[in-house]
Amino acid sequence: AAEDGLNAWLRYARLPPDIAKQATVPLNIVALNTTETSPVYVAGQELQKGIKGILDRSLNITHEASEGSSVVVGTIAAFNNSGISIGTPELEQDGFWLSIKGDTVEIVGQNERGALYGAFEYLSMLAQANFTEVAYATNPSAAIRWINQWDNMDGTIERGYAGPSIFFKGNAPVSNVTRVAEYARLLASIRVNGIVINNVNANAQILSDANMAGIARIADAMRPWGVKVGISLNFASPQTFGGLNTFDPLDKSVIAWWTKITDKLYQHVPDLAGFLVKANSEGQPGPLTYGRTLSDGANLFAKAAKPHGGIVMFRAFVYDNQHLNERNWKDDRANAAVDFFRGLDEKFDDNVVVQVKYGPIDFQVREPPSPLFAHLKQTASAIELQVTQEYLGQQCHLVYLPPLWKTILDFDLRVDGEKSVIGTDILSGKRFNKKGLTGYAAVVNVGQNATWLGSHLAMSNLYGYGRLAWDPTVNEVEILEDWTRLTFGLDDTVRETITRMSMESWPAYENYTGNLGIQTLTDITGPHYGPNPQSMDNNAWGQWTRADAFSIGMDRTVKNGTGFAGQYPTEVAAVFEEIETTPDDLLLWFHHVPYTHVLKNGKTVIQHFYDAHYAGAETAATFPTQWAKLEGLIDKQRFDETAFRLTYQAGHAIVWRDSINQFYNSLSGIADAHDRVNNH
Ligand code: GCU
């Protein structure tokens, strides 16, 4: 039913009676807060609903500590006040302690939000028939675990593939916030604590009085779930919306205008998370328009938000798509972020976080990590990931993304010759001692579709995002297995099949859309969907392959190319500078080579292209047949809807395979050793 989609991994499906009877279930729920809109109160209700669903037991909720068989949820402070002794768990902001012993369960949050997270964790165990006794504390790897929605105020969503916005309709925030609250519930269960609800290509009208009241409505719906709301700002608002004749960030009237607007916003939403700003990128206005620096621009908002406790997520995705010229061998959009932010590291206010896309270009199927992470030593940084599959099949292709994200999060940048792993050292704030204001943002773009993302299987990416933001070391298969049990039940065949297909999916997609680090060979000026290798050159967007009749790839070396490799710390730069040490999967990202160049795997570049495209399409062709084995093991609606998408994917993979292989076959004139690619 549609509810299965809406509830995603929070279905609380009834366990089979013989399994359910092995559970030791407390008799009461005690939620140590009486305020109905508090996360702890909500946690009590969620526990009641979950235990009823999973185990068919109806528990009462009280709000006073009581002895005996109960599950008690509350903050450390509430536990202490109620006289229940809990030792002193070591908890950081949003962390929780979970103890399950016989029929006594204690869920202790460092704050209200942490307590709610602990309740979801307990329910996740029950739903997976995990009845073990545990006692442990867990804390987030980073304080910022946000979502970005690219929702426009007219209800459309930029790069959204699941119907209209749940946040905006008719140029205003929605009045019915049911779906908003349901989304917040899902987000709370994966420990997301903030969301920016409007597009980074922002409409200044969001700042009208009526719209501020609408944002407050949305914030009210999400607050009980511990999710704070933030908004994207348009840099030119003082002029286009405020009627000033300038938006120069150093102009007194501009500063006064933003201060007043920010104060007003905080009157409407006292706990507004803060602002997200896309400036001087892809035609958006910004401080460079007035010859000011990016830090001047970011600090303008930071100063206005500071008295209210707000933060500014300032995007590093700054580049000039008007002046990139492929005829200049040294021109390279990949250089832009470090070029723009170099020299500003000490200039940002302490409530500014620079939000950096995982790779230097734009959410491609394979990119090296952004070198900017190594340059921001004083400035707080956050990584930007994409759950919405813009370049990755737009939810019509199954592509499980945590393995891709892990290539970035696990990467050791060796800053100053010391261990600097992006997830555990840099985004955690430990490496540069920035604990408190670092973390994660993911562009998600859910819509009104009953599956949220447009595809049931795509939801593992949203779930996986939350899990990795909490703990970037968690294993991607483990994430998938948990998600599958929660979403589709405990059947082994279901879990094994979905896990196998999902783990095969990103490598397959890379194989049929763009391998060896050449990027996703899609339609670069259009919707970013489907094969279009010819559009990848001679475009002003700076996403180039430099493919000609003899050779291909971007020479990003220092000695002969764009110099991008030199933006990495010395040890990493040395690896990428040389063809011999660059891994095959990034070869064409860093080097320009003949099609006949022999890879480490023994094949020529062109033969690898041919073979990989066949291999990728072959894998995709197995998906519908793998899935068919699940008929009857999961409900018909989700079975059918997924079968439809996987069948489409198998066909589209062939389209990809043949378009790309034909294209390079004609361009290079080199025959396929296995005679599959015809150049008629
Ligand atoms: C990509 C995407 C745009 C988006 C931009 C951004 O270029 O295609 O739709 O606005 O990234 O992240 O700002």
TrEMBL record:
Q: Where does the Glycosyl hydrolase family 67 C-terminal domain lie?
A: 454-676
Catalytic reactions on record? an alpha-D-glucuronoside + H2O = D-glucuronate + an alcohol
Name the keywords, alphabetized.
Carbohydrate metabolism, Glycosidase, Hydrolase, Polysaccharide degradation, Signal, Xylan degradation
What molecular functions are annotated in GO for this chain?
Answer: alpha-glucuronidase activity
One GO biological-process annotation of the entry reads: xylan catabolic process
Top EC class for this record: hydrolase
Functional summary from the UniProt entry: Alpha-glucuronidase involved in the hydrolysis of xylan, a major structural heterogeneous polysaccharide found in plant biomass representing the second most abundant polysaccharide in the biosphere, after cellulose. Releases 4-O-methylglucuronic acid from xylan.
Name used for this protein in its record = Alpha-glucuronidase
Which organism is this entry from?
Daldinia eschscholtzii
Which lineage ranks, top first, belong to the organism behind this chain? Answer: Eukaryota, Fungi, Dikarya, Ascomycota, Pezizomycotina
Q: Which residues of the full protein are shown?
A: 14 to 693 of 837
